[in-house]
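Lab manual, section 2.4: Encoding a predicted structure.

Procedure: take the sequence of the chain (419 residues), apply the prediction step described in section 2.3, and record the output as structure tokens. A sample record is shown.
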Amino acid sequence: MIHHQFTATARLVTIALIILPLPAISQETCGAAVTACRDGLFVTQDIIIADDACAAAVKADANDGCARIFRAATRVLRVFVEDTNGSAPLVFTDSIKEMFEQFGISSFERDLYDLSFSPILPRNFDGKIDFPADSPDGSDIQDALDLLIVTALEDSAADLQAVSEATVIRLTANELQSISGAIGSTSIEIDYGDSKVLEFMILLWKSQLLFLIALDLDVDIDSYTPRTTGILIQDDVIDANPDLARLRSGASSALADANQANRDAVGAYLAASNFIRSEVDDQTDDLLTIEPDQLQDEAEIRIQLAALAGSLDTPTSILNTGTTLFDEANIISALNTKLGTNFDNQGAVLDLGLFYDRAPFDVRDVLPTFDAGNAIDDGSFPDPTFGSVLVPEPGLLASQVASLATLLLILRLRSRREF
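Recorded output:
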């Protein structure tokens, strides 16, 4: 697996390193063209200024890998922090600011590097959240996701796909301190491998959003406020919205785009892995590294990703690689309990392309039921194969089915320090 360079193992300093020659440290390839872009990010910390400067640098030289990496980040951040109305005066789905205002949220100042802000929500005299009657509904949010975020992610991925293997950025100690507040931070090297990991994450995010955009999520959000009782998923959400999670008009296009994003994401990860594994320069200051004692685990991730990528085009056996990352027996037991299946002594054939490309189906038809505590009722999935996407395959080892769940957990649990 890939680690952030600040992990303890990545910072090993021994007497041997003092007396033995170190591999050469890669030199930065960035020129003066990205100076204004970096100043906007790390000095003034104004994302709008930074993004405009990065855009100018890319326009001046589309092959400037440093400018491309910085622009890939600033164009996505800009969507969330730009405090302006959209270009269409009668539409509020083309601006995050206008979306918040439609919900009655007027204050949403955020730290540039901390998007987990806490907006001030409108409340009634009893202190209950009470959105205005004309608040955006679920479909409005989907339109905004598509128009604003998916578009930014597509452009960001295109930036990163233009980065060459020769590109090297060195973030200085002062630049790191400006965003982390950590005094004494050393410089960090960002190279092609790091850019491909970022591309991998961006493409997965894009795929997930396109999946949500393909489904009917047109829920009247303000009808759920104010409330004196909790919301029941089964009664208040699923049963109250009979079209919820069915495919929307245009879903096939969104799902096809999501499928391609999945393919591209796997390609980006494998390119990152190949590059990082082949590096011969000093790795102690690299942003992302693969630790020697985790080469086998990371190799397993590569195998599982290749299997997932194959399943996007044709039914693919989920292979057993003897993972030690998670307790496979417990994963299988949980799957059997929740899905109502019996995967003992057998694996599965995964066919994700069936849903994404060849025969999309209404997700609502495979939804389970939920109890009064909003937990899934055991064995309540009407179709444990999810429309033949995950089909038991006799003759394979039981742990093989766990590999899919294992991989999904790996991808979701990796933080910015380890993914």
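Check your result against the sample. Confidence is low (pLDDT under 50) at residues 4-23, 395-419.
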